[in-house]
Queue: 3 jobs
Job 1
Amino acid sequence: ETGVTQTPRHLVMGMTNKKSLKCEQHLGHNAMYWYKQSAKKPLELMFVYNFKEQTENNSVPSRFSPECPNSSHLFLHLHTLQPEDSALYLCASSQEWAGLGEKLFFGSGTQLSVL
Amino acid sequence: QQQVKQSPQSLIVQKGGISIINCAYENTAFDYFPWYQQFPGKGPALLIAIRPDVSEKKEGRFTISFNKSAKQFSLHIMDSQPGDSATYFCAASRGQGTYKYIFGTGTRLKVLA
């Protein structure tokens, strides 16, 4: 079993729906991330949490709302999304002070389709 | 200046051949350069990484070549195998405690049997 688990694997939602993505890491890491992966584009960092505190919000629209109740769990709440938000959403974790270059451990992602 | 430019977008190699993927960066403050490998339906996984104090790092069939003056680094896959077929992302980050990795756009590698 992977150290980072994401659910659901696939999600189809209408533009007026509200849904949530869930991520859980079993690695004892202190930092958790949401990335957006779209075809032919670089992985796009959305949010970073370190010790449950948000340390990065990469100018993400407010229709994406993250929540980190503890160091092991991360949520991404979605509401009134647009079709261009369709993408693979990846959760990752890292040990904060792993020296120069924190290794990112990714989950398998949630493939989101907005109709 | 924050971009990492990756090429080619896709690559087809015969089994046993050498696969080469190139990346270039602008920001000289970057000091850690990892390569991530992603199989379909999976998240990316760290494959190999290098720091700018060395010009080459080898792990098995995978080698990173680093040219600091040219601000370029590349991944070489020797004796490429069909199991290496995946998407490869280069990335760059800056400094301890930073959370930002700047990723390239990815290279889809297909190794023909």
Note: Chain B touches chain A through 27 residues (CB under 8 Å).
Job 2
Amino acid sequence: QSVLTQPPSVSGAPGQRVTISCTGTSSNIGSRYDVHWYQQLPGTAPKLLMYADTYRPSGVPDRFSGSKSGTSASLAITGLQAEDEADYYCQSFDSYLGGSVFGGGTKLTVL
Amino acid sequence: QVQLQESGPGVVRPSETLSLTCTVSGGSFSSSYWSWIRQPPGKGLEWIGYINYSGSTNYNPSLKSRVTISVDTSKYRFSLRLNSVTAADTAVYYCARREGGYPNWHFDLWGRGSLVTVSS
């Protein structure tokens, strides 16, 4: 059972927009700790996709955007492409645990 | 550019100690914090802990009693030891660079991962 809750799967057709939610509690996202997102392509290591809620590392397309409100955060992907098919994970800090926590991951399928 | 590479045995017997090393190349070792993260087959990510160049550590409370992370600055590498392993410790173990200040850090660089199977 992950501390941060994500939907197990989402899907969308090429060109569409999808969002992936990440729900936490008052000891993590609700305490305004930053939320970060990772993309894991099949058989590879996770790659940083978004950091500090809304910032994209160099090389990440602006089709990816992040937001946060209350105890939840979201990752939005517009103009969906076949290469976006991957697992996505959110991560934040939890003050009760005193360290990093991850969501359980969301598998994105491009139809 | 900075690269991370995990190394260590692929199979560990139950009740024994898992040992992995991460070698860092191509960048400044002493200015960063270094982490271990694991992923059981078909499951999500779990943060294990981190260390900095001076040896300051922070561990996941769920693993703290069994984990030791150490650093060898002369060889630009850091290591993970997890004792009393069981099948539940079977996972791909990643080393990663921790970026950002406490507590809002993230992991901006990752190794390719090392699969460790606990089996007799």
Note: Chain B touches chain A through 23 residues (CB under 8 Å).
Job 3
Amino acid sequence: DQQVKQNSPSLSVQEGRISILNCDYTNSMFDYFLWYKKYPAEGPTFLISISSIKDKNEDGRFTVFLNKSAKHLSLHIVPSQPGDSAVYFCAASVANSGYALNFGKGTSLLVTP
Amino acid sequence: DGGITQSPKYLFRKEGQNVTLSCEQNLNHDAMYWYRQDPGQGLRLIYYSQIVNDFQKGDIAEGYSVSREKKESFPLTVTSAQKNPTAFYLCASSLQISNTGELFFGEGSRLTVL
């Protein structure tokens, strides 16, 4: 049973525009959320995270928004660059629960020149 | 440099053979994990370990086995009981399994069963 859902398998955006990647979760106990970026044939790398006590976290071109009532979070990339083309995974957890992260299926972002 | 090393990067095996994937970390992390990635399936947890000599099954543990005899090592054996072993395997570690810390991933091992 998928507790973290990324319903868009792929997204194409023009360079310079905003990329918005969405993630929904079903477990109301989740209180910590992370985004990972993955290039082909490489391991994922951590991008940005947010705790449930916040509704926004910003790091340079990347901003994550959390809407707890809707059980929804989104990753905004502004401006998008060709090097951002990768698969983005959303992950969620219950802090200090002793359980590992739950990952979504990923969204493949293509930023075109 | 600190990090996670997976080997081999590519591995070919005949059907019915067991194969062991290596994962070593020098980050002094307590927790280690094995994930499997298939196209369109995202990352699915196979096994994880919070401390030495202890490990727990993840969502898709059937057909796999692990050991954690040393803090820095967490090898994964893909047994002949695994029905569809061809996949990209990722090892990861974290300081603890508190989940507020990020996971550090290795480069992955691609296993192809012929």
Note: The longest strand of chain A covers residues 86-93.
